[in-house]
Give the backbone structure.
Amino acid sequence: MIIKQWVKSGSPWIWLNAAAVSTCLILVIGILGLVAVRGLGHYWPSDVAQIQYRDKEGVPQVITGELTDSNEISSQRAKDAGYLDADIGSGRTVEQYLIKVGNRDISGMDFRWILVNTISQMTYPEQLIVLERREWGNFYGTLVGVKEDGKSIAQGNEAWDVAQQRLAAALEVYEEIKQLEKKEIGAINYSLERLRLKQRKLELQKAWTDAAKQEMATEKAAYQVDYKRYQEQLKALYVKANKESLVVKTGEGIERDIPIGKIVKAYRPNGMNVFTKVGHYFSKLGEFLSEDPREANTEGGIFPAIFGTVLMVMLMAVIVTPFGVIAAVYLREYAKQGFTTQLIRIAVNNLAGVPSIVYGVFGLGFFVYILGGNIDQLLYPESAPAPVFGTPGLMWASLTLALLTLPVVIVATEEGLSRIPKSIREGSLALGATKLETLWLTVLPMASPAMMTGLILAVARAAGEVAPLMLVGVVKLAPTLPLDGNFPFLHLDRKFMHLGFHIYDVGFQSPNVEAARPLVYATSLLLVMVIVGLNLTAVTIRNHLREKYRALEG
């Protein structure tokens, strides 16, 4: 009887709802925690081990590297690989370590599995170094000496301090190289291309006169002079950056000369204290957020992907908001309520459930090929056969996602308009305001929190979409950002990088899966943080507007 009364009171359903919400929260926190630990932990400078072990033939070997993972395999699998004696009983398991050995230019692979029972000794000497290189990944070993122009200038204990000084100087030279290549020389190449297009346009217009030729030749000559000067400076900087090298030795005793200009960072993790490791950790995080990717996107930073994601979402928001609000205002305030209006609302609600890849196909067919192709024919005939807007780019990606999120904004705005009391509209009209003035000065400001709700939902969906972007503008690696110092500054025709596609590319298309896995976690966490940041900004604005118009609603 008591249980029956308890069920009738509705308490079980309250507890079930609370349990469901709690379960969802635990799952979300668990997922975010896993992503955070796996992603952010990757940049902590792990100690480097020197491992002595026996190979399949029982020959002693030595390798150096980081212990990144461990698991257990069956004894039968180990015997099949030739690592265990035949008298080991079946059903047992053997532990193995995953070692990041680096030195890919020497051994051809970054990671190796080693059975624990084959390891005879594992030590952590302080002299072991890690070199982060611009290519071929990390190098693990010991520093033998420093050379300049092929001559030794430091050996032994003093070599490390000299190497750090020369590396700091080489990094400054590399920044100068980067500035010359991306800024000065990049601007000249951009200007020369614009001159070429200008010449082609004049030829198509039959206006390629002697005066135009002379003017064009003068401009080209000026650019060529600057280009030649920058090329000479660049050549001198490359010589300066690569004239010094580090002599290093692997755990197997193989010596190599590595040019200092190809090294990003050199450190001794085994000799670091906690404070030094913390400083190194935040330095790596800063590099991850501010630098360009390298090594097939498995090393370096992801700044272009962050920039592309935020810029695309902002453009999408600018496009979708006015169209969504105008459509909602027409349906709620002006359209005659009847069968046609209801049919439109049903169509809008159905559009919200269409798979995103369908929008991508539509964007590719209509925006890129039809609209972009016609724009090229009308406005950019000189660029033919190379397309300008007739190819996937930032503008078409923003328009496609605006179309994808348009139903959400329409529905949210219309619901906000329906909640505004009729008395407010009547009061405004009674005071002599027109319907347009009532709508613009009273109704829309009061409905702005609902508009912001729709925009929040739109941003959350658009920022995480990948499938349509693969068809309308996103790329694995963009050579330049869509926003730079060259006129017209914002280049809507350029392709761009996106955090979501970056995760897909690194996680599923990378040739080095083990090296890419931590970056997948780190980028996933960053994408969540970007979405949360954009949403928090919109939520703050919405709450401000809600408080502002709360008195009027009452």
